[in-house]
Amino acid sequence: MSENIVIAGGGVIGLSVAWRAAAAGHRVRLVDPEPGRGASWVAGGMLAPVTEAWPGEEDTLDLGQESLRRWPGFAEDLAADGGDPGLSLAGTVVVAHDSADAEQLRVLGEYLVALGRSAESLTGRELGRLVPGLSVRSGLSVPGDLAVDNRKLLTALLAAARKRGVEFVPREVTGIRPGAVVAGAELRCDAVVIAAGARSGRLHPALAGLVRPLKGEILRLKPARGCLPPPDRTVRAVVEGRPIYLVPRADGEIVLGATQYEAGFDEAVTAKGVRELLEGAERVFPAIAEYELTEIAAGLRAASVDTLPVLGELEPGVLAATGHHRNGLLLAPVTADAVLAMLGGAPLPPHVGPTAPARAHSMIPEGA
Amino acid sequence: MSENIVIAGGGVIGLSVAWRAAAAGHRVRLVDPEPGRGASWVAGGMLAPVTEAWPGEEDTLDLGQESLRRWPGFAEDLAADGGDPGLSLAGTVVVAHDSADAEQLRVLGEYLVALGRSAESLTGRELGRLVPGLSVRSGLSVPGDLAVDNRKLLTALLAAARKRGVEFVPREVTGIRPGAVVAGAELRCDAVVIAAGARSGRLHPALAGLVRPLKGEILRLKPARGCLPPPDRTVRAVVEGRPIYLVPRADGEIVLGATQYEAGFDEAVTAKGVRELLEGAERVFPAIAEYELTEIAAGLRAASVDTLPVLGELEPGVLAATGHHRNGLLLAPVTADAVLAMLGGAPLPPHVGPTAPARAHSMIPEGA
């Protein structure tokens, strides 16, 4: 049955839901003062459920793996409707610079092998041959963890949504209730989808405390003439306890991320964040010292209490698709499919079960 | 006698000469595709002949001191014609972080005292009381070294030049000869002034090899809420052999500079340059770590062979006012006055003598 849907938020989640819902025949309006920007615009673009995994977060890993399986089809459909999103199949290496980092990586490697995931341990020398310019002690190669060009993806989603008839309302959402979204005027509808990222917690009482901003700073760099070219695949590392990643883009640029701070809604790029990212990157890939620094930026991820997103009905006619933490780009396909199922009244597949909004309320720390 | 003058270059030197020459009654055209930008826009704004001094560079110190004496009058005239240039009288401290830096500073201090300059040695504790937040071993207070807000200065110079009737020609200069400047069309005139900064060496054979680009990277930062406020005066330091400076602006911003590279006409901001500036600044003023990094930029100084500018006649009707090295803002008043004297056929004052173009040819390294 065709419904009249309003989506609050035009990041990668809101746009993916809008595109898929419009393609399925629903009437869709998407409300965002600047669709295609926000945290999605500042993302690194890793589609990396395995190398993001950590013991105790198996639900996140399962959901991520399920979404990653859907990514090639999602990218193919998107290429047909809106343009190539720049999916890279080159894989990921996770590297350790010193013995403490190597120990942390050993724990991750053993955990992944125990789960039956594809992860190959490599020496520093082997890694240097695989990815010229890496200066590391040891590492893991995880060929299944991929990457996407976040800005190409957003551009393609905007075009695909427009092609499928999504109406864009360039306003700030100030209120939500069953059957209506307030954004300057009141937009009446059958169903609201809250996909407002870090700001979702302000839009519905059931999300307050569940979703909070988690600042991340990223840099963009490109090799100067005569420099060693960027790595051909994603490189992740933990340097002095801080995670960093280098994600190459097809045009030769590198996205270097990402810091994590609890800083409220502050989106300032800090001196220390930039210094730490550059130091960490030079440590594992020294040639980056001579690269041109072309952009510094910060975004607010929608952190959730347990790293799982919040997907489901908050009350009749109000759905949440938010709290994707560091995994918004990865989880876009599985999220869009889940929202479509909910709109159609279909049962949710089992991998989405742990994301139900109700599970999270018991997890909010007292006083939050 | 009123002359018809064309000035090639609209940085701080070209604009100062244009304003002063037009105010003196000359017809002035200034040719620059983007006047008020270039290296002057990226400068730190120090007016610091004393703390820039080094044994063996006495001519540079004398010229700088002479120009600094003219700065208050220059700023007052400019405020009347074009607006307040943001001259700060707060002074400068030069600080040492470790024992090697302290030794270098001791040499500078003894040299300054021997020259009879005002420079007071201070302990780290004394400096911490004078400038809260400084974390240093020792230092020198040099109250006579000042600073100007380079962007306010450029804005004021543009307005003052317009008010005095300077005609702006927004084109690139491609050729110069006695009696004419080629910039798309040919601009005929009585005298040409070459004030094209790092690009001056390309505009006249007598400047080739004398003036070369010297890249400098600078950052701009501002305190986040709750941060310690910036120092109230210019702070200079040498950290691990690399000079850095922090120059506060009246609006709370800090300009952090400056790297120095021989990199041809490349204006890319490098990863290493930014990392070193941030590291150095955190070392002497740790609170800056939490500041917001609002801008990264690079400019090309017009380096000369001996740090002195090139001021004088290259051939009849062609004057040079370029090669100001790290001192373009400081030397703008004395340069404008010298060019005015030359245009009027007046004898040059003695402090300008060492800047004669002829002196420099013997100093060009063989093969350059």
What would your notes on this structure say?
- The structure is a homodimer of 368-residue chains.
- With 368 residues, the first copy, chain A, is of the alpha+beta class.
- Chain A folds into two domains: 1-88 and 146-211 and 305-368, FAD/NAD(P)-binding domain; 92-143 and 212-303, D-Amino Acid Oxidase, subunit A, domain 2 (D-Amino Acid Oxidase, Chain A, domain 2).
- Chain A has helices at residues 12-23, 38-42, 58-81, 99-114, 124-130, 150-163, 271-284, 328-343, 357-361, and strands at residues 4-8, 27-31, 46-47, 87-88, 92-96, 120-123, 138-142, 146-148, 167-169, 175-177, 180-183, 185-188, 191-194, 211-222, 234-239, 242-248, 254-257, 292-304, 310-315, 318-322.
- In chain A, the strands form four sheets. In chain A, strands 6-7-5-15-16-17-14-18 form an eight-stranded mixed sheet, with helices on both faces.
- In chain A, a hairpin with a 2-residue loop joins strand 10 (175-177) and strand 11.
- The longest helix of chain A has 24 residues, at 58-81.
- Chain A is globular and about 60 Å long.
- The interface between A and B is medium-sized, with 23 and 23 residues.
- Chains A, B: This is glycine oxidase.
- Chains A, B: Its EC number is 1.4.3.19.
- Chains A, B: It holds the Pfam family DAO.
- Chains A, B: Pathway: Cofactor biosynthesis; thiamine diphosphate biosynthesis.
